[in-house]
Design brief:
The complex is a heterodimer of chains A (488) and B (395). By secondary structure, chain A is α/β, with parallel strands linked by helices. In chain A, 36% of the residues lie in helices and 17% in strands. The chains are: A alpha/beta (488), B alpha+beta (395).
Chain lengths: 488, 395
């Protein structure tokens, strides 16, 4: 039997990046993947812009960036849609808009403000988060430099950042804007993929955070997610990483608080003293390790980690080419948002609070000829039972019929969070493996006792989206986790 | 039991309340887990004396009782506690403590093995939350059965004799830390040879409906053997003599302490014999392994203090009058005729025989007398008579 230095569980973008990085440094790496194909949750991504340059450089990936301007279209019930153009430098321009010029200017000012703040935050994103009270000088230095970055914004901006960082997005938008549609666009960016509504505290932070990770507030689509996965896999294969696909890991062997190997579903076992799990923290700790090998306080924190997904992925196929009413055809390649106003989104969120799907949901979608690929929210993860998919389908049809010219839906597919959980072993079917909120970020992501990619089990590391800096296809988690591993 | 719950009677009454309220001349009640328990019935000294010379009856119904059922009951308790209980046999009882992830003690208690797949944990504080969280991943069912069992502690040198007179069959052959099913005056009871007095004694667990029958039976021979109902104050005296520690008195429960440096690990409490670092993983094992490698900073020890003034709440000093510890419980022991205390001392003074000094403030008719008393560090177990262990027990 072959001996591997490192076993990586899960071949998502982080698993692949870690495998490539570690094998580049001469480690013998095995990647175990449950599904036939690599890519994991990233296969759901319609757009991608977040893969870190640091990762591309370090792994020597060959990925072409689409150097062209992208559009964001927010659908309006009165068919006066808002279209924004975003150029490669992230400058935003209005193409179509019913709002007054003053409102448009205020919108651009607001975007500029958020961009400035998220740039400050982005300096925290790409390093391993510092430990607090470790007594280590480099940790202390990192904390000081974090504070300094915030202070460097200047007195006025720093005050503004500290004022809004815990606020809800609706308040800040209503303070600055009048047009409902404009507010809807920013709300969508703030809350998509989180367990928040526009009026939930902390929704500004999620906006800034996702802005910082993606390098742009509208997550514009300048990378091809399929290409990212392919090039990551290729770089792994080039470096001699071995893959074991269609094999699910059942449990980890642990002896004396140290990891010794893995057991597969087909009873096969593979030994290794170093294992990286790219699965979410809950699955890793409660299913692969088992609560009996962990402290009670720790399992408490694991079970309290908020990881309820509420975004469903839907794929629609129409009979004819899709046309949007009252919209120029040149904008058909844009990102479409249906989140018309704050009240509408908040009402959609109300259903989510009671574990029901929104009867009037919000959508973010891309059109490809006859097909639509959309993120639908809110469709919460259910602990028991299942959603009425027929009902969801007719709800979406009701919305889309307002905007799509004479067409007929011929195919409807939906992956609810429950299905995402089943398919990719992510508890709760959460995009980011866990809510990205202030108590689950940075040095406390996923939670105390498991931050800095380490676990209470020697030789076991985490590098999924449940670790800092969270979800979004950054690849940073993998590089940071690998560095942490190599320190030992 | 819950029928009495109203805003007028915020404290619950135990099934013995009809008798205890009658006996409690002082109407001096103590709040224990939401129940009314007598602090002192008439005179603490008298109650203490009965417990050390004949027998005392203490209502311990508020003691929390958790039923643990399921095929992994034993594995679950083994994960919970620091001691290896995997070899526990039916009818056996073990003294246990459980720690949090930092190796600090949360609470202590006893575990009763009713069957291989049915254990019962008795403890003074509420722990259901901790137990259920610990049970994640175990095939067990945990239930709080506190209200369904009435309990009395029957402690003292004549306790076995009186039970024998009550025709409790073969009670004298019940070994310490064992229990069995018996009958008292036609009521089914479970009797365990355990207690908080450090003397020969039993704990009687029964159906609340039988409570008054059991209570009355224990006082049946009072013409010859003066058995008294005993309050919490007297119980506190006997437990200090026995060297038993109490959460939130001698140490802060790790689940309740707010200040991190107030928590204590088993080594500091002198309970290292309860920690088995070789057994399967339990909560706190990793932390305790690290703690064991380092020298202790402080330890809970017994103190033999000169003079006769109890050193309640005293601060301990070394020869240079530098603070080196604190007293957590102290009393003048009438049985031992000595002035004893339990307290923490710093590492230089942990050795048996070390000398420290206590500053005692003794109130004397509205004025404090300040006493500088010489103390000798001794074992915590001040009172430990052979009759506690005798099988068959003294009748």
């Amino acid at each position: 039997m072959k001996i591997f230095d490192i076993i990586i569980i899960g071949a998502g973008p982080n698993g692949l990046a870690a495998a490539s990085y570690l094998s580049k440094l001469g480690k013998k790496v095995l990647v175990v993947e449950k599904n036939e194909e690599v890519g994991g949750l990233a296969q759901y991504a319609d757009s991608s812009s977040s893969l870190s340059k640091k990762v591309i450089d370090q792994l020597g990936l060959k990925i072409s960036t689409k150097k062209k301007n992208t559009f964001v279209t927010s659908l309006n019930d009165n068919l006066n849609h808002t279209v924004l153009e975003i150029d490669e430098n992230n400058a935003v321009k209005f193409k179509e808009c019913e709002a007054s010029l003053e409102d448009q200017n205020n919108f651009l000012k607001l975007v500029k403000k958020y961009n400035l703040f998220s740039k400050t935050l982005s300096s925290f994103m790409f390093n391993s988060p510092p430990r607090v009270k470790s007594g280590n000088k480099s940790d202390l230095w990192q904390l000081i430099s974090m504070g300094w970055k915030v202070r460097k914004l200047g007195k006025k901006n720093m005050r503004e950042l500290l004022r809004i960082i815990g606020l809800n997005i609706a308040d800040d938008l209503e303070d600055n804007l009048i047009n409902d549609n404009l507010m809807g666009i920013l709300c969508n960016e703030a809350i998509l993929g989180s367990n928040l509504g526009p009026r939930s505290p902390g929704s500004i932070l999620t906006l800034l955070y996702s802005n910082a990770i993606n390098g742009s507030i509208f997550r514009n689509n300048n990378l091809d997610s399929k290409q990212i996965i392919d090039s990551l896999e290729q770089s792994c294969l080039d470096r001699g990483v071995e893959f074991l696909k269609s094999s699910e890991v059942k449990k980890l062997f642990i002896n004396n608080e140290s990891v010794t190997g893995i057991e597969m579903n087909n009873q096969n076992t593979i030994e290794s003293s170093t294992i990286i799990s790219t699965l979410d923290p809950k699955t890793t700790y409660l299913n692969l390790i088992g609560a009996d090998k962990l402290d009670t306080d720790f399992t408490r924190r694991v079970s309290n980690f908020r990881s309820k997904g509420n975004v469903a992925k839907i794929k629609l196929e129409f009979k004819n080419m899709i046309k949007i009413k009252n919209l120029d055809e040149k904008y058909i390649g844009s990102k479409f948002i249906y989140a018309p106003n704050i009240k509408y989104i908040e009402h959609a969120f109300n259903n989510n609070k009671y574990n029901k799907y929104s009867t009037k949901p919000c959508l973010e979608f891309y059109i490809d000829n006859k097909n639509i690929s959309a993120n639908l929210y809110y469709v919460p993860y259910l602990k028991s039972g299942s959603h009425d998919k027929k009902e969801i389908e007719s709800n979406i049809q009701l919305i889309l019929n307002n905007f799509i010219d004479n067409n007929q839906l011929i195919k409807f597919e939906i992956d609810t969070p429950n299905e995402i959980e089943k398919k990719y072993n992510t508890s709760g079917g959460h995009w980011h493996h866990g809510d990205m909120e202030i108590d689950q970020l940075l040095m406390i992501r996923p939670f105390y006792g498991s931050a800095q990619y380490e676990t209470p089990i020697n030789g076991l590391y985490l590098c999924g989206a449940g670790t800092h800096p969270g979800g979004g296809i950054t690849g940073i988690n993998a590089i940071n986790a690998s560095k942490q591993l190599l320190k030992k | 039991m819950n029928k009495n719950l109203s805003y007028k009677k915020p404290l619950l009454e135990t099934p013995f309340h009809e008798r205890t309220s009658e006996a409690c001349y002082n109407n001096d009640w103590y709040r224990w887990a939401g129940y009314k328990i007598a602090k002192e019935y008439s005179s603490t000294e008298l109650e203490y004396t009965s417990m050390r010379n004949t027998a005392g009856v203490i209502d311990i119904t508020p003691m929390h009782k958790y039923d643990i059922k399921g095929i992994e009951a034993c594995e679950f308790v083994n994960k919970l506690v620091t001691r290896d209980i995997s070899k526990i046999q039916p009818n056996q009882i073990m003294y246990i403590i459980w720690c949090n992830e930092d190796g600090n003690v949360i609470d202590d208690g006893t575990v009763f093995c009713l069957k291989e797949d049915h254990l019962r944990i008795m403890c003074a504080e509420r722990n259901l939350n901790w137990f259920t969280d610990t049970a994640t991943g175990f095939n067990v069912e945990i239930k709080d059965i506190t209200e369904t069992i009435a309990a009395l502690a029957f402690q003292g040198p004549l306790s076995c004799k009186i039970l024998n007179l009550l025709n409790v069959n073969d009670i004298e052959n019940l070994e310490p830390f064992q229990f069995n099913n018996y009958q008292i005056n036609n009521s089914n009871v479970l009797i365990s040879r355990t207690g908080f007095s450090g003397d020969l004694g039993y704990e009687i667990w029964c159906d609340p409906a039988d409570a008054l029958n059991i209570w009355d039976s224990l006082f049946k021979f009072n013409r010859d053997y003066k058995v008294l109902p005993t309050g919490m104050n007297a119980l506190d005296m006997v437990r200090i003599e026995a060297g038993f520690i109490q959460p939130n008195a001698d140490f802060m429960s790790a689940e309740q302490a707010l200040r991190p440096n107030r928590m204590r690990n088993p080594y500091e409490l002198g309970l290292s014999w309860l920690v088995d670092l070789e057994k399967n993983y339990f909560t706190g094992k990793a932390a305790l392994k690290k703690i064991k490698k380092k020298p202790l900073n402080k330890k809970l020890v017994g103190l033999d203090i000169e003079g006769d003034k109890p050193a309640v709440g005293s601060i301990l000093y070394d020869r240079q009058k530098k603070e080196i510890g604190i007293v957590t419980a102290a009393m003048w022991s009438p049985t031992l005729k000595s002035n004893i205390a339990i307290g923490y001392v710093n590492k230089e003074f942990m050795k048996i025989g070390s000398t420290v000094f206590a500053e005692i403030y003794h109130p004397e008719e509205l004025e404090y007398k300040k006493i500088w008393a010489n103390c000798k560090v001794v074992k915590k177990q001040f009172f430990n008579p052979q009759r506690r262990y005798n099988v068959p027990a003294d009748i």
